């Protein structure tokens, strides 16, 4: 958790309109920041001040119970939110189920740096009465869509900064001789101001891999792991993360603590002017073009085609796009409305972007091959490369162009490697775009034996902007290791954690992107 050697950035002033806000009854506001009514102005320096506030000593899950040794669900206490993201002044419903019925508390934390603690307590609800809410039936396309009653309604205060927020649910046993149980809910507070950096969380992919209640992700159809015409809903709790690492810490938090948190922690530690949003927010190009740079983070696999069009437009308009991720923009998953009409609450997988080569389809002959039908445009035209077969594996991130400005100050020479940084999925096959350069390249090894060639790339946009592709899901693992984070591993390979070269490359790219 030590700070990297990078200097804190100078801050540029940007303004934004605030909103009226207040907390709904039943809420006890934490002493670290009572909501203040009335308009507020946000700026880069206000995020720095936010992170100078007292961090929470206790925000992680302590006691988690799952439904079996290989289970994903925690029916003793679980919940979900009515929206992926919310603006200050808007209301958010939190649906909670306890089994057996017990009282519970809900503590809401904003995730950030906070002097190295990683989170700040914003408000507390309860104890509140719990109830056991029904499991949803299996619907069309194996959809499991909960229609639970709200347990808590929160109006987002005006002084809550844009960020990722975790709500910790804790049961309150009727007697002291019984244990308490915990899980999370997760939501994003967004804003509409101009900012340097837009941090897009990959929550479509969190939901695609969510197995709740019992093997109902996009990967658990009896026809095969990549079958088409399957749907998943955001109206259900997140189960324990089902891949790469096996730890109950993740119950209810999607994939945030694994993929996004190390980058968010590092950005806020170093004072970057960052604002946060969900995948669904980026259906609108205006969400992206208000910022100088957009970040796609971690595992950003599932996109509505309207997101692709929005990013393509943003690049044309001069926005810098940094793909600090792998396997991105791969599955075509259009949004649809929930049963009660809320927009963008259901994802349905209908195909893939770009398609595969004949050789790649043949390589996947033992897999459900209908999935490889092309249903979207070529993702490499906005990334600079694409997902290639084999899709997964592990390898070292190897410098190919040490004279390029992204390597300034790293001391890297041609062939120098950052061990284990590539995985578990990646980008390769560089696009044929004017001015595109391959900055780093090498092999990953599926199962430790089958190679695939990955490529990190950069290409110029039409208005002196840049599009950088780090080519690995593991990129953020080289930036920081905040509290509550666990290093992943896959295919007999793993990243090593914070590395000053990854930090310096990221700093160089951000400096070029935001000025």
What's the helix and strand layout?
Elements: E1 27-29, H1 44-51, E2 77-81, E3 85-87, E4 91-98, E5 103-111, E6 119-128, E7 150-155, E8 163-172, E9 182-190, E10 195-200, H2 203-208, E11 230-233, H3 256-269, E12 274-277, H4 285-289, E13 291-299, E14 302-303, H5 305-316, E15 320-326, E16 331-332, E17 335-336, E18 346-349, E19 351-353, H6 358-363, E20 374-376, H7 380-383, E21 392-398, E22 417-425, E23 437-446, E24 450-460, E25 466-469, H8 500-514
Low-confidence stretches: 1-41
Strand content: 25-35%
Tally of DSSP helical segments: 8
Strand order of the largest sheet: 12-10-13-15-25-24-23
Whole-Å distance between the termini? Answer: 28 Å
Structural class: alpha/beta
Tertiary shape: globular
Mean pLDDT: 90
Instruction: Please bin the fraction of helical residues.
Output: 10-25%
Instruction: Give the C-alpha Rg.
Output: 22 Å
Task: Tell me the total number of β-strands.
Answer: 25
Number of domains: 2
- Summarize the biggest pleated sheet: 7 strands, mixed
Concise structural overview:
The chain is of the alpha/beta class and 515 residues long. Helix content is 14%, strand content 29%.
Describe this entry's structure for a reader.
This protein is α/β, with parallel strands linked by helices and 515 residues long. The chain folds into two domains: 27-39 and 47-190, Macroglobulin (MG2) domain (Immunoglobulin-like, Sandwich); 196-514, no CATH class. The chain has eight helices and 25 strands. It has helices at residues 44-51, 203-208, 256-269, 285-289, 305-316, 358-363, 380-383, 500-514; strands at residues 27-29, 77-81, 85-87, 91-98, 103-111, 119-128, 150-155, 163-172, 182-190, 195-200, 230-233, 274-277, 291-299, 302-303, 320-326, 331-332, 335-336, 346-349, 351-353, 374-376, 392-398, 417-425, 437-446, 450-460, 466-469. A seven-stranded mixed sheet has the order 12-10-13-15-25-24-23, with helices on both faces. A six-stranded mixed sheet has the order 1-6-5-8-9-3. It has a four-stranded mixed sheet with strand order 14-16-19-20.
């Amino acid at each position: 958790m030590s700070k990297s050697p990078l200097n804190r950035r100078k801050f540029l002033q940007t303004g934004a309109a605030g909103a009226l806000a207040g907390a709904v009854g039943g809420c006890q506001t934490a002493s670290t920041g009572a909501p203040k009514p009335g308009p507020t102005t946000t700026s880069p320096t206000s995020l720095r001040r936010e992170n100078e506030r007292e961090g929470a000593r206790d925000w992680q899950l302590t006691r988690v119970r799952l439904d079996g040794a290989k289970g994903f669900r925690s029916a003793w206490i679980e919940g979900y939110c009515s929206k992926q993201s919310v603006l200050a002044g808007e209301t958010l419903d939190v649906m909670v189920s306890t089994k057996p019925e017990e009282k519970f508390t809900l503590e809401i934390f904003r995730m950030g740096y906070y002097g190295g603690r990683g989170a700040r307590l914003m408000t507390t609800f309860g104890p509140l009465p719990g109830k056991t809410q029904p499991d949803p039936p299996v619907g069309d396309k194996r959809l499991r869509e909960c229609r639970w009653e709200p347990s808590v309604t929160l109006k987002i205060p005006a002084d809550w900064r844009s960020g990722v927020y975790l709500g910790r649910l804790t049961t309150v046993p009727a007697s002291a001789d019984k244990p308490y149980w915990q899980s999370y809910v997760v939501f994003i507070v967004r804003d509409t101001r101009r900012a340097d950096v837009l941090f897009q969380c990959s929550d479509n992919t969190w939901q695609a891999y969510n197995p709740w209640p019992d093997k109902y992700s996009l990967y658990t159809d009896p026809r095969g792991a990549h079958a088409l015409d399957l749907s998943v809903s955001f109206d259900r709790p997140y189960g324990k993360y089902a891949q790469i690492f096996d730890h109950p810490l993740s119950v209810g938090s999607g994939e945030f603590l694994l993929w996004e948190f190390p980058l968010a922690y590092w950005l806020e530690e170093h004072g970057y002017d960052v604002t946060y949003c969900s995948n669904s927010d980026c259906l609108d190009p205006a969400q992206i073009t208000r910022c100088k740079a957009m970040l796609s983070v971690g595992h950003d696999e599932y996109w509505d085609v309207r997101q692709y069009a929005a990013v393509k437009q943003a690049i044309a308009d001069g926005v810098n796009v940094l793909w600090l991720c792998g396997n991105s923009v791969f599955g075509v998953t259009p949004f649809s409305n929930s049963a009660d009409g809320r927009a963008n609450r259901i994802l349905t997988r209908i195909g893939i972007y770009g398609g595969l080569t004949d050789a790649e389809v043949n390589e996947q002959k033992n897999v459900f091959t209908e999935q490889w039908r092309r249903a979207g445009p070529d993702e490499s035209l906005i990334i600079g490369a694409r997902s290639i077969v084999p899709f997964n594996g592990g390898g070292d991130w190897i410098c190919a162009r040490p004279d390029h400005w992204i390597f300034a100050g790293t001391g890297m020479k041609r062939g120098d490697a950052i061990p284990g940084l590539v995985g578990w999925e990646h980008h390769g096959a560089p696009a044929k775009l004017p001015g595109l350069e391959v900055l780093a390249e090498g092999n990953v090894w599926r199962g430790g034996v089958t190679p695939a060639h990955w490529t990190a790339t950069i290409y110029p946009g039409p208005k002196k902007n840049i599009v950088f592709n780090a080519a690995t899901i593991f990129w953020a693992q080289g930036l920081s290791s905040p509290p509550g984070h666990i290093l992943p591993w896959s295919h007999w390979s793993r990243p090593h954690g914070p590395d000053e070269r990854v930090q310096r490359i990221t700093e160089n790219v951000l400096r070029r992107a935001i000025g």
